[in-house]
Amino acid sequence: MNKVDSLITPTPGSFLTIIFIYFVIIAIIGYFAARNTKSMKDFLVMGGKAGAIVSGIAYFATQYSMSTFMGVPAIAYNNGFAGMSISVPGIAFSMLIPALLVGRKLLQLSKHNNFLTMTDYLSDRFQSDTVRATHAIIMVVFLIAMTGAQLVGAGVIVKTFTGYPEWVGVVVTGVVVIAYCMFGGMRGAMLTDVLQGGLMVLTAVVTFVMSVRAGGGLENITSELAKTSPDHLTMPGAKGQYGLGVYISMILLWSFFSISQPALFTKFFTMKNYSVMFKSIILGTLGMMIAATMIEWSGVNAFISIPGLVGNEADFVVPILIQQTVTPVFAAILIAGIVSAGMSTVSALMVVATGGISRDIYQKLINPQASDRKVLNLSRVVTVIIGLIGIAIGIYKPTGIFELVRFAFGGLGIWAVAVLLGIYWKKATAIGVLTGVVVGEIYYVALKLSWLPGDLAFGLDALIPAWALGMVIAIIVSYFTKPVSQDVINRHFAS
Question: For 360-371, what is each residue's pLDDT tens digit?
Answer without folding.
Answer: 999 999 999 999
